[in-house]
Write a structure and sequence with these properties.
Enzyme class: lyase
Keywords: Lyase
Shape: globular
Number of strands: 10
Strand content: 15-25%
Distance between the termini: 54 Å
Radius of gyration: 19 Å
EC number: 4.2.1.22
Protein name: Cystathionine beta-synthase
Organism: Mesonia oceanica
Largest sheet: 6 strands, mixed
Strand order of the largest sheet: 1-2-10-7-8-9
Bound molecules: 4'-deoxy-4'-aminopyridoxal-5'-phosphate
Order of helices and strands: EEHEHEHEHEHEHEHEHHEH
């Protein structure tokens, strides 16, 4: 018989899928690391389980304890699945700009969900960061995950996502392009790939309203770069410890409109029904067109699934309200 002992054993070993029509103008082979095949439908399952195992090893969480995290939804889903199998309670705080589907999904897998205002700074007591910290401090036997600064996040990608991409491309990968939020994905994969071949180029996709690109180019944390934006999952108004700027060759910024429009194009032209940051990632890759030559193998990572965005990106009324569609 061939079976897994529980759902957590299905995490990882996702396929690489060639992108065809959308990248017709690019001379290189462009492959998508297709993370929606994880059981929680996102790449974040990988780091969720790794962060919990690291906390267990360090004695930060005890049997029956409560896991608390500020999450845009995907990390919460991964943590929730692991919490169910491992017997923990799960509390998620998130910003009210997140899609309703993400909130409903977290509740469906047993999370207590606390919705916090989006347009307050991270240090504000009502922000989803501060709320998560406060709950973890108040509740006995609880552990605040802090995916931004918890380096088990990067480690998960160094141990699984990076090696998978290297092996699946027979070591031929030349470029890795990926949206950056906590930085775990780019830093873990980037470090692994550069250790195998220092010539592999690592490109981050950022949003307008986020600090990463300017900080990478100038070393300056510029508050003027921070303003509200619509794209979900990528960009930050803080510098998470998981963003290892040293292994990143450059950032490109994608507009909210382009991220939304290209998410829909992936669904309609490639049959890839994905989340908002996938549109940002593929548009970012297209913006980097001049970087790629004929024999290059470019891997772009798609973080999550389209079902979480049916009320937004895949809804014509919402697209019109945002001015993303005529
Ligand atoms: N896309 C989506 C949909 C996400 O949820 C995240 C995680 N915030 C990212 C991209 C960015 O990944 P990372 O946190 O590893 O930088």
């Amino acid at each position: 018989m061939d079976y897994k002992n529980n759902i957590l054993e299905t995490i990882g070993n996702t396929p690489l899928v060639k992108i065809n029509k959308l990248v017709a103008d690019i001379p290189a082979l462009v492959l998508a690391k297709y993370e929606t095949f994880n059981p929680g439908n996102s790449v974040k399952d990988r780091m969720a389980i790794k962060m919990i195992e690291a906390a267990e090893e360090q004695g930060l969480i005890l049997p029956g304890g409560t896991i608390v995290e500020g999450t845009s939804g995907n990390t919460g889903m991964g943590l929730a699945l692991a919490a169910i199998i491992k017997g923990y309670k799960m509390v998620c705080t998130l910003a009210d700009k997140q899609s309703k589907e993400k909130i409903d999904i977290l509740r469906a897998v047993g999370c207590e969900v606390i919705v916090c205002p989006t347009n307050v700074g991270p240090e504000h007591p009502d922000s989803y960061y501060s709320t998560a910290k406060r709950i973890a401090a108040e509740r006995p036997n609880s552990w605040y995950v802090n995916q931004y600064d918890n380096l088990a996040n990067t480690q998960a990608h160094y141990e699984s996502t990076g090696p998978e991409i290297w092996e699946q491309t027979d070591g031929k990968v030349t470029h890795f392009v990926v949206g950056v939020g906590t930085g775990g994905t780019i830093s873990g994969v980037g470090k692994y790939l550069k250790e195998q071949n220092p010539n592999v180029k690592i490109w981050g996709v950022d949003t307008y309203g986020s600090v990463f690109k300017k900080y990478h180019e100038t070393g300056e944390f510029d508050e003027n770069e921070i303003y509200p934006y619509v794209t979900e999952g990528i960009g930050e108004d803080i510098l998470p410890k998981n963003v290892n700027f040293d292994i990143i060759d450059g950032f490109t910024k994608v507009t909210d409109k382009d991220a939304a429009v290209y998410t829909r194009r992936l669904a309609q032209e490639e049959g890839m029904f994905l989340g908002n940051s996938a549109g940002a990632a593929i548009k970012g890759l297209l913006q980097l067109k001049d970087e790629f030559k004929e024999d290059d193998v470019v891997v772009v990572l798609f973080h999550d699934h389209g079902s979480r965005y049916i009320g937004k990106i895949y809804n014509d009324e919402w697209m019109k309200e945002q001015g993303f569609m005529e």
